[in-house]
Amino acid sequence: MLHLFDVKDFKGxxxxxxxxxxxxxxxxxxxxxxxxxxxxxxxxLTQNKTNGKFTTLxxxxxxxxxxxxxxxNKETDRTDTIEFVAFFDRDFLMKDSFETLRVQLVYQxxxxxxxxxxxxxxxxxxxxxTLYYRKENEEPRNVEFQLLENxxxxxxxxxxxxxxxxxxxxxxxxxxxxxxxDTDMTERFICSKxxxxxxxxxxxxNTDNIRYLSTHRSPDAQKPSGEGRRHGVxxxxxxxxxxxxxxxxxxxxxxxxxHKPYAxxxxxxxxxxxxxxxxxxxxxxxxxxxxxxxxxxxxxxMKFSLQQxxxxxxxxxxxxxxxxxxxxxxxxxxxxxxxDLHPKLQAQFVDLCIFALEHGRKFILETHSEHIVNRxxxxxxxxxxxxxxxxxxxxxxxxxxxRCTPIAVTAEGKIEEWPEHFFxxxxxxxxxxxx
Length: 435
Prior knowledge:
25 strands, alpha+beta, 6-stranded mixed β-sheet
């Protein structure tokens, strides 16, 4: 869905920072160097909430990031802005004959606007949005929305641009289709056909299409039956058991070699066998009104709860279910996929991601695992076409500033220039052992 993402003055990222999202983006680096912030910033595209009048970023409902001041880069002034820019994939836009679509979102502390009628709270208030788009064989268009004073208790945005002029309300980050010629909102008109198409794309920036899975995953959290249909696996994987039960017999958005959709159960069982071994079968059952996961060993006629097996299975299952229940075009954000996984399983997880990549998914993985990086390099060597689909970034702090280095990988899977502290500890320790 997206191929580039910019973040400005968000947490440790001072100034403007751009990241490529070609398919499988692997983010590694030292601690406290801004890796999680990339995933969080991407997910925050989905967290624009409207209270009926104006839009704020929901920083705490799922990510627990605190207030606007907590996430504004500390080298800035409190009056400065946090900005996110999302660039849509051209392939994603082709059905509407669009070549380019870019949306820039600007946030400031709501407390700065208290004199204009806003509540004096330190929330991330949406104060501006710029849309840049171009249709095939047409000139590019630019439309800006700028928040006005809270007149008549209505948060209106002034619209200026190549095709639109007037005033509008915004729900989340989607402008309402009815525009106004003046601030008293008496004369109305409908937005252009092109902007109506753009509105539909903006509405796609939601939690159904951009999914986040945090480090500490709890797939057997005993959530009430039926909740998983609404929440996916959840940010902590808390609805995994419910999703396995609900989706078991559903057709999913993955095609078999005959180009027919897989049933979830078939593809799920295939990957459980590939990742954990053919002796395992995993199912979810309802107990006391909640779903519970069991690991079956049919050859021994035994089953075990997740509390009776290794924690690696508990960490793997939310990721597997999240991937298999995703859709073409989805972006999947996963923190520390290697947690509690054996090195071989960490490497195999990359193969699962590449399988999903080939079915139209995109990933951002935050990892400290050299096994994940090395498997990605190996697959590039085995299949050179993946070179354009995989990006590796290395984050570190130098004199308090975050430095993000794209790691150049050759068609042979070699790293052209190995940065200091980039998975070099094993080498250093081995050299120490042989001295």
